[in-house]
């Protein structure tokens, strides 16, 4: 049996079906939208959870075209849902707008990109100009088609286009807006937020609030922006966030869908690994997998059944928000991050209507932002006496934990780069154990540790501290003698001292001195200095270092 190709990065529904890519059927989203009958639907989900593909699917289902699109939905779930839903296929003019291209360094470029998106949608519907029904609208329509520079034209452009389409088709219009919050997030980081939010507010108000030509609208993004900042006065707005119990199975993969993928590709043995790495999201009360990462890992497994899982989701964004959390963390927040990485939970007050310009106003806002954009899952919730909503947060899976660990180590290494560590380095070569231990403990207490990694964390931490020893060669885990020493510090001259460091980690505080002695003894027992002596080094300093949480003990020989 020939396996269907996996749709890596394919977010056009027609392409996915006609080229016979593997598809997890999400067409019952159509049924739910028709059943719930909301005028404006805002879906917020983390990035790479299938939002754009679903929007494309909605366009191909509802849009009135010369060619019949029914073949695209053959044997899919919506075709089994009943005539009351099938009767809506191909019946509506559709405006489909993506705002992701507005990620630009200044407002002028971002606005230009959005104007181009709007212009392209006008061009896509240019066929309506052949009709005598639009004689009064043709001049304004053509100005937008030609990319007129008058900015005011574009503020009401979606409303104008929907009025033209209704006049031509004698049918109200469906408006799809994908990644609505990309221009806002970008504008905040690039410092033109006020200008961007003013334009988006005006665009949405005319298209969604005062538009009698609107049948219904679907908007997608990662974050709900407060009603006051964009959706002012939009009383017909139905917000579906990850806390909502509606539409939960339509974005991301359910457990049953993941099992089906693995069965179809004969990879059932990888179920536990995939669950550990990519499961754990909870939308409403439904357990959901990251679809992007599942598909990417299955793709990597096909030529190599032993391929290791990795954090595919980390590569789809800068994860700058994690960096911001770490950089702004006080001692309490650092402790909370450590608890999360250890697999424990923390509780935070939740509010869904933050704006991008408020994200950094408080740590609470930052936690909320990270929850709604996919870095945490909800494992519990409660309401207090004052009606404040609290949720219990946990890191959802190994993939997200990997992002945290990498960002923490990078943050630490960046911090070390600008710190004067000459006192610590001098102490190492002078066998000044007291100063070495004191300085290393100061560094330990400033960083965020992840104790589930034990020796890996402390090994990376120590290497980070030594990273600025530019006149020396710092080597990690080199084969030496009968085993592997943890870290070598080699002088470029054989007449200068060399250093061997052996690290141990304790489970109990009482073992910290004993483990330090063991580390020192291991250097001799396993003959780690043999290689250095063969190279001509005679002055070899040996350090045993033992760690327990935020403390270390050092001994020298």
Automatic annotation (TrEMBL):
Entries under InterPro entries matching the protein: AAA-ATPase-like_dom (IPR018631), PDDEXK_9 (IPR012547)
AAA-ATPase-like domain sequence ranges: 7-231
Protein name (record): PD-(D/E)XK nuclease superfamily protein
Highest taxon above the source species: Bacteria
